[in-house]
Amino acid sequence: MGLVAQINPVADSLVGEWLSLPEVATRLGLPISRVKQLLRDRKLLAVTRPNGDRAIPAAFLDGEQVVKGLSSTLTVLFDCGFDDEEALRWLFTADETLPGTPIDALYKHRGTEVNRRAQALAF
Hints:
By secondary structure, this protein is an alpha+beta fold. The chain contains seven helices and six strands; from the N terminus they run E-H-E-H-H-E-E-E-E-H-H-H-H. The chain is globular. The relative contact order is 0.17. It holds the Pfam family Rv2175c_C.
């Protein structure tokens, strides 16, 4: 597992709403140990808040599930050499070719397009 990203003002302003691990567990209907496993498996991404607690962007959840395509996009980003903070920033930064942000496109079930753009970053 990579280093856990520290939240910074730029990431905080891009992401907006953050959820604690217990809040994510409740929304997903999973035990907190399973949420921690998703983080270890890099299927979700968390940052460390100033108080030391880890938090996950609320935008990573779509109702009672993880946004479809997020885990595969994270895999592509990490395979391209992104660290947690870079991946988070990329997901929440507007991309005029999508349009909108990659996380917005994932919500709209445009994971293939998002992953193509992520793969292009490696070249």
